[in-house]
């Protein structure tokens, strides 16, 4: 499928359209940020004004057996959460990315880019990879069209025409899913290291060499997670919010996990794997099933889990950046989170089967702590959902005001963290995102647990 001809008139109309969209996004951004602060400040005033009502509610709760039991559990979880946060903070400050090794030390790398209905974006992805500051003779670039229904194959052919022997392109006979596209790449690739990059992502020039360096300096390292940020964070409000969330998830949380040599998920957008570790679990990975059904989601988390189980360490490279597109509307966002949530349920169950065994030489404390933390979140999802519903029905004003005040307090850390690392103005989106997640996405984890056996990518559709 060939795209329509580009004319001066079409370029001009698109420029005007994008300029108008930017203005609309900026206006909406100001409205949302101001509204977020009005809600949180108003909640703080309400909590101050309703102190007697809060005292009465807590007194009544403490004088019932169920209320006392819930308070006790909540107190234990609060202490546990506070201690793990402080430990994460310590691990974050302890973390240091591995410096890039020399050209001579760099191994041969196979970069695999699976693509489905990605349109022109796949060309931008391949172009950014081809510009990498990595020895050309050591870089094998594979891109696989997984039966796209749009013009993805055309743009892959354009990339091949321009880049020549730097890239190899191929098509699946039909749409088989991302896992099968990667499987084909793993079997064709000749590199000592496999790197996977999503077709809606672009990378910095030094990303590849930074990403693979930990695998060179440490033979016990089996996989490396890249540092993912949002590419389309100027186009809509949700990407702005998600960019702050991604920085917290990667630069804070994964830095802490990396200090324990136990990053739980190497992201599909950018990850590196030792080829021997991949081939050791490749048959199991491609044939993985859950509740009797073939797994067509969570291929990155599953591969990470299987590599951890082999005794390898999995680390994070903060200096290896990739920028990826994220959903710009609520529907796309919750579908993405449901997919991630179902994968977490499946892989936590798989992890429970080995994490308390002697699966690794040396300390296994980090992996076990991370597993317990994940398991607690899953186990408490329904009790807290029931409590929240009870609280909303019986004391709606107390619930809303106390929750918004909690968001103001708790979300201040990601605001300060993002401001310190990047930009103060953008950091305030952490507040808006927390409000959205608390009131609009709270149901994701319970729903993902209840539907963990369901298949489906949910967000695979034609690119706009």
List its salient traits.
eight-stranded mixed β-sheet, 464 residues, alpha/beta, Spore Coat Polysaccharide Biosynthesis Protein SpsA, Chain A, two-stranded antiparallel ribbon
Question: What name is given to the CATH topology?
Answer: Spore Coat Polysaccharide Biosynthesis Protein SpsA, Chain A
Number of helices: 18
Would you state the CATH class? Alpha Beta
Number of domains: 1
Fourth-tier CATH superfamily name:
Spore Coat Polysaccharide Biosynthesis Protein SpsA, Chain A
Structural class: alpha/beta
Main sheet: strands, sense, barrel: 8 strands, mixed
Task: Give the percentage of residues in beta strands.
Answer: 5-15%
Average pLDDT for all residues: 92
How far apart, in Å, are the first and last alpha carbons? 15 Å
Bin the helical content: 55-70%
The total of beta strands comes to 10
Q: How is this fold's topology laid out?
A:
Blueprint: H1 8-49, H2 51-62, H3 65-94, E1 109-115, H4 121-130, E2 139-145, H5 152-163, E3 167-171, H6 178-188, E4 193-197, E5 201-203, H7 207-217, E6 221-230, H8 237-259, E7 270-274, H9 275-286, E8 289-290, E9 293-294, H10 299-309, E10 313-324, H11 330-352, H12 365-379, H13 381-394, H14 396-410, H15 412-421, H16 424-427, H17 429-440, H18 444-450
Parallel strand pairs: 1-2, 1-4, 2-3, 6-10
Antiparallel strand pairs: 4-7, 5-10, 6-7, 8-9
Helix pairs in contact: 1-14, 1-17, 3-8, 4-5, 6-9, 8-15, 8-17, 9-10, 10-11, 11-12, 11-18, 13-14, 14-17
């Amino acid at each position: 499928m060939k795209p329509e001809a580009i004319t001066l008139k079409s370029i001009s109309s698109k420029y005007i359209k994008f300029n108008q969209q930017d203005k609309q996004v900026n206006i909406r951004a100001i409205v949302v940020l101001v509204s977020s602060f009005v809600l949180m400040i108003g909640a703080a005033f309400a909590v101050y004004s309703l102190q007697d009502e809060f005292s009465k509610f807590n007194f009544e709760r403490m004088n019932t057996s169920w209320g006392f039991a819930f308070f006790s559990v909540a107190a234990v979880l609060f202490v546990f959460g506070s201690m793990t946060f402080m430990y994460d903070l310590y691990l974050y400050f302890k973390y240091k990315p591995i410096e890039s090794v020399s050209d001579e030390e760099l191994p041969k790398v196979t970069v695999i880019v699976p693509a489905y209905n990605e349109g022109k974006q796949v060309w931008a992805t391949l172009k950014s990879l081809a510009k990498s500051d990595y020895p050309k003779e050591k870089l094998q670039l594979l891109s696989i069209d997984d039966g796209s229904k749009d013009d993805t194959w055309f743009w892959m052919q354009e990339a091949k025409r321009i880049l020549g022997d730097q890239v190899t392109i191929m098509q699946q006979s039909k749409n088989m899913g991302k896992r099968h596209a990667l499987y084909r790449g793993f079997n064709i690739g000749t590199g000592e290291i496999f790197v996977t990059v999503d077709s809606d992502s672009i990378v910095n020039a030094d990303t590849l060499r930074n990403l693979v360096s930990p695998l060179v300096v440490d033979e016990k390292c089996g996989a490396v997670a890249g540092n993912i940020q949002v590419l389309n964070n100027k186009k809509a409000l949700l990407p702005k919010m998600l960019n702050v969330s991604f920085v917290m998830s990667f630069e804070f949380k994964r830095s802490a996990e990396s200090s324990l040599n136990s990053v739980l998920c190497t992201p599909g957008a950018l990850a590196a794997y030792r080829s021997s570790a991949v081939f050791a679990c490749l048959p199991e990975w491609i044939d993985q099933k859950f509740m009797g059904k073939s797994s067509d989601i969570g291929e990155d988390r599953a591969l990470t889990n299987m590599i951890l189980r082999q005794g390898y360490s999995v680390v994070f490279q903060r200096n290896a950046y990739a920028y990826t597109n994220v959903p710009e509307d609520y529907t796309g966002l919750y579908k993405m989170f449901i997919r991630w949530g179902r994968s977490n349920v499946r892989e936590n169950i798989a992890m429970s089967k080995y994490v308390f065994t002697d699966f690794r030489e040396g300390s296994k404390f980090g992996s076990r702590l991370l597993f317990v933390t994940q398991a607690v979140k899953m186990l408490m999802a329904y009790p807290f959902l029931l409590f929240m519903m009870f609280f909303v029905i019986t004391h709606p004003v107390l619930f809303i005001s106390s929750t918004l005040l909690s968001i103001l307090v708790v979300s201040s850390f990601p605001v300060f963290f993002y401001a310190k690392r990047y930009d103060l103005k953008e950091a305030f989106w952490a507040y808006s995102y927390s409000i959205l997640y608390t009131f609009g996405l709270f149901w994701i984890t319970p729903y993902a647990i209840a539907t963990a056996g369901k298949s489906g990518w949910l967000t695979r559709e034609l690119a706009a």
